[in-house]
Amino acid sequence: MGRLSWQPATVTDAFAETPQVRTLELDVTGWTGHLPGQHVDVRLTADDGYQAARSYSIASAPEEKGPRLTVERIDAGEVSPYLVDELRTGDRIEVRGPIGGFFVWHAGLGGPVLLLAGGAGIVPLAAMLRHRVASGSDAAVRLIYSSRSLGEVIYREELDRLATHEGVDVVHTLTREQPAGWRGFGRRVDRELLAEAAWPASSSPLTYVCGPTAFVEKVAGSLVQLGYDPRTIRTERFGPTGR
Amino acid sequence: MSVFSRGFRGRRQEGPPGRVPPGQYLVDDFPVLSAGPTPETPVEEWTFTITGDVDAPRQWSWEEFLALPSETITTDIHCVTRWSKLDTVWEGVSVDTLLEGVDTSAEYVLAFCDGGYTTNLPLEDVTDGKAWVAVSYDGEPLEAEHGAPARLLVPHLYLWKSAKWIRGLQLLAEDESGFWEALGYHDRGDPWQEQRHWGD
Amino acid sequence: MDSDLTLDGNLTLDGNAAAGVLAEVFVSECTTAMTRCDACGAVEMVGALKAYVQAPGTVLRCRHCESVLMRVVRGAGSCWVDVRGLTWMQFSVATPGRSSGADAV
Ligand SMILES: Cc1cc2nc3c(=O)[nH]c(=O)nc-3n(C[C@H](O)[C@H](O)[C@H](O)COP(=O)(O)OP(=O)(O)OC[C@H]3O[C@@H](n4cnc5c(N)ncnc54)[C@H](O)[C@@H]3O)c2cc1C
Question: Where is the FAD-binding FR-type domain (chain A) (predicted)?
Fold first, then answer.
């Protein structure tokens, strides 16, 4: 692996996941594959040379066509509204990546694996889940995914399908609004919810927590209180955005 | 060579001619920059100190500091991360007031802050009505993330010189690099000359 | 957003967020390198450090004692890296005397 620099990328497909969230499929010059959980930096350049760069996790599994990114629109944000509302198939942007070896899970690491997602934090964790299934791994994986409402759940149908595989569990919690007859959780991910829905600390899962910074701090703190070894917990804070 | 992104403008506005230094863009909000945890020193424990090459060190408590004559400053500010903000309104004590009667041969100052941040300036860039220790912004006490209870304000230089959470000035015969100046950032930082990095 | 978190807490990211700037200058993947904090002795991976990226440069701090461990500043044509806060960094490299094929497992 050599030093990384910016590569041109062409948008080959773009589709809505929810009213706030869109997935972009990219064709990146010289892309040599990635590991689930890695991200890219995206750079936009205005016609007068002004530039803005942000990080986005890779949503696709290494086995799939891509890379794909999934971006949530942050109102008043500089980059995400452009990626969600403006960018069209055929447009070009620049990316640097794949990067980051720390927040990575692949089949070779085995299980059990505990994934905790808040909002758009599902993106790198979905790449891990897709890879778990596409690679034929038998690692036990449980995803606990917090969204504000059912309409804001990203990849909902696909997660339902993934959960039909032996050894894959998906647990949803809806923090603001639950539809009539909702049978999942209806509150924030806290210590009690984790004690009920996550594997016990004694099963020593590899744990990945991703989402807005406030979500990650809360969840990682609760896991440590419940006796999980901090060294088995990997976190990816997305920043102040989100809920 | 960059790839241009069709229709991308970013969060920027046009500025009146002559007001915005080269390579800078206007913003409406007040972005928060942070290189570490926000210090939260209670004002009862806060002091402002002039030390170093001086006949005798000076120190003010928060109450004494507020009793000093203060000025209202309306000025443009320019951050090296490329945003500028016009007509910001501050209230603070002029550094001239703080150095009144101080006998020194120093030619440089190092501003020091809670949280360990430092920045260096030639003495002549903070005297003669060019710098203040500000305690309020836009008519309100400073917010924690903008430097409460007090920050340096040196509006004619890039904003990293306007050290947040300031606790004092050390007067020095020889220039000593601050937190960013020791790692690639320009010693003086004049936005009109685009003095961003070493060698600019 | 949780009200018990300060705004500043919300500006913190993980060291992994610095992977891009580091990958521009280091040939080895940096976020899985181990570091030792020279102030408190804590040993952590770069990816697990506290990252502040909303600043003139990227600042990586110790999660335990808040000391500045690494700083990266990107200028036009130059990149400056300060590692004064570290006692050492440990990178994984190929095992001597074995083929790279064996290491790839
Ligand atoms: C490693 C990593 C991976 C990521 N992956 C994804 C992903 O897969 N999908 C995704 O949607 N996002 C992801 N993010 C978040 C993403 O990088 C952007 O932060 C997000 O898209 C917002 O960018 P923006 O330019 O739209 O908003 P910005 O212009 O950066 O601002 C967003 C909002 O946050 C507030 N804000 C931002 N910075 C500050 C500040 N310094 N002080 C106070 N308020 C502030 C602003 O007021 C604004 O309302 C990831 C982040 C990281 C670090």
Answer: 4-105
